[in-house]
Amino acid sequence: MRIDILSAVPDLLTGPFEGSIVGRARAQGLVDIRVHDIRDFSSDRHRKIDDYPFGGGSGMVLTAQPIVDCFEALDDSESIDEVIFLTPDGLPLKQNVVNELSLKRRLVLLAGHYKGVDQRVRDLIVTREISIGDYVLSGGELPAAVLTDAIVRLIPGVLGDATSALEDSFQDGLLDGPAYTRPAEFRGLAVPEVLRSGDHARIQEWFEAERVKKTRIRRPDLLSGQD
After folding, report:
1. Is residue 119 part of a domain?
2. What is the C-alpha R_g of the chain?
C-alpha cells in the first residue's frame, strides 16, 4: 500500500511514522508513506498558503492553488483509490471504514490547517471526508497519523499475530475485554480463576460475557440491535 499525505506542517508527521508498528511496516516494505509539503507548491514568493475568508469571519483558510498543484504533481505510476480530507465536519471514523480502506492500494490524505481549506479543493479532488472525533485540533496532521496507523496495522504481515487485529475492539461491534498477564497475583488482586483453568470453552465464554458487560456500561450505543 502507498499513502501520500499533503500537509502544511509536515514536520509533525515525522515521528509517528518512524517507530513501532508503522515504522517496522515501512522498513519491511509493506507500506510506502510519503509526506508532501504543500508550501513547496505555493505560487507566492513567500510560500504563503493561506488567506482571509470571503464573507468575513475569524481565522485563515488554506488556499486552493498550492493544494491542488501538490496533488496534481503526485506521480501517476499507480492510480489513486481515495483522496481523504481529515476534518472535524467529516463522517466519524469507524472500524468498518478502516477495514475498507486497508484493502485499497493507494490513498491520499489531506491534512487541513487553520480554519480549513477552500471549498473548491473539496469539490475538485476530495472523495471522502473523515473526522476522528467531535473536537477540534490545530490541524489535520495528527488525525492523518491516527488514520494511517489504524490502516497500516491491518495490512497483511504487519502484525506478528495475524489474528490479533481481528480481535480488536469494534471489529465485531463490541469493546475488548480485560487483559491479564503474570504474575497471577499483584498487590492483593488475583487473575480470575477461569483464565488459569485451561478450559478454553469456559475462557471464551468469560471473555464474551466481559466484553458485553463493558460495552453495555461504556458504549451501550454499540449494542443497538444486538440484544
Report:
1. yes
2. 22
* Residue 190: all three cell numbers together: 488475583
Backbone phi and psi for residue 198, each to the nearest 5 degrees, phi listed first: 80, 0
Give the range of the structural domain holding residue 134, as residue numbers without chain letter: 2-152
Q: Is residue 126 part of a domain?
A: yes
What is the DSSP code (8-state) at residue 40?
G
Q: Phi/psi at 90 (nearest 5 deg)?
A: -80, 180
Block residue for cell numbers 504563503: 48
Please tell me the predicted confidence (pLDDT) of residue 102: 96
Give the model's pLDDT for residue 113: 86
Name the β-bridge partners of 91.
130
Q: What is the pLDDT of residue 224?
A: 78
In the three-class reduction of DSSP (H, G, I as helix; E, B as strand; rest coil), residue 198 is classed as coil
Give the pTM: 0.90
Measured between alpha carbons, how far is residue 114 from residues 42, 88, 117 in Å? 16, 12, 8
d(CA 148, CA 151): 5
Q: What is the CATH number of the domain that holds 84?
A: 3.40.1280.10
Cα 43-8-118 angle, rounded to 5 deg: 70
Which residue bears the cell 463522517? 91
pLDDT profile of the chain (227 residues), mean per 10: 97 93 96 98 96 92 97 95 96 96 98 92 98 94 98 92 62 89 97 97 96 95 74
Let me know if residue 160 belongs to a domain.
no
Query: CA-to-CA distance for 78 and 147, rounded, in angstroms?
Result: 21
Q: 127: which 3 cell numbers?
A: 472523495
Asked if 191 and 180 count as a contact pair (C-beta separation under 8 A), the reply is yes
